[in-house]
TrEMBL record:
Keywords: DNA-binding, Sigma factor, Transcription, Transcription regulation. It comes from Tenacibaculum caenipelagi. This is RNA polymerase sigma factor. SUPFAM superfamilies: Sigma2 domain of RNA polymerase sigma factors, Sigma3 and sigma4 domains of RNA polymerase sigma factors. InterPro entries: RNA_pol_sigma-70-like, RNA_pol_sigma-70_dom, RNA_pol_sigma70_ECF_CS, RNA_pol_sigma70_r2, RNA_pol_sigma70_r4_t2, RNA_pol_sigma_r2, RNA_pol_sigma_r3/r4-like, WH-like_DNA-bd_sf. The lineage of its organism: Bacteria, Pseudomonadati, Bacteroidota, Flavobacteriia, Flavobacteriales. One of its GO terms (biological process) is DNA-templated transcription initiation. It comes from the Bacteria.
Length: 184
């Protein structure tokens, strides 16, 4: 059986030659998944569609920079995430740099986050979607996408301390929402 990479490779090669049919084939393969990723960040389906369109345009323009070190889907997902964050930055999203007083919060054990087994992944995602943008973006990047604080600080242009503090505060708000909904 052929791997996904072997199946996609001829299509990716055709895209490198500006083959519109191959581009449409890749778009059809990945558009739904990339829409879901964009929607986590921008929260509006029309905006998410625009973000995905722009991300695909960027991907096809820069497909020669795809070096196959990761899967095509992972490479494309990073473009969609960056495009989503660029959209939010254009909307003048201000991520607040925190003063020394709040940096002491960061030393709390942020990895110790116990959630009752009765709470589903979707319940957590729904709660994250209700947060203020600065918390929602950091939680999404950290918990759902797997970025570390160094990467988040680079992507968002904030300090690692701010990233950790946004994560801590966002988690607390999610826990409070889950307690209210599930009476945990």
């Amino acid at each position: 059986m052929k791997s996904t990479k072997q199946i996609h490779q001829p299509v990716i090669d055709a895209c490198r030659n500006n083959d519109a049919k191959a581009q449409m084939q890749l778009y059809d393969l990945y558009c739904d998944a990339m829409f879901t990723v964009a929607l986590r960040y921008v929260k509006d389906s029309f905006t998410a569609e625009d973000v995905v369109q722009e991300a695909f345009i960027k991907a096809f323009k820069n497909i020669d920079s795809y070096k196959e070190e990761v899967t095509f889907g992972a490479w494309l997902k990073r473009i969609v995430i960056n495009q989503s964050i660029d959209y939010l930055k254009k909307r003048k999203l201000e991520l607040i740099s925190l003063n020394e007083e709040t940096t002491t919060l960061v030393d709390d054990d942020h990895d110790n986050w116990n959630v009752a087994s009765t709470i589903s992944y979707q319940d957590i995602v729904n709660c994250i979607q209700q947060l203020k943008e600065k918390y929602r973006i950091v939680l999404t990047l950290f918990l759902l996408e797997g970025y570390d604080h160094g990467e988040i600080s680079q992507i968002l242009g904030i300090s690692e301390v701010s990233s950790r503090t946004h994560l801590l505060r966002g988690k607390k708000q999610v826990q409070e929402q889950l307690k209210a909904v599930h009476h945990v």
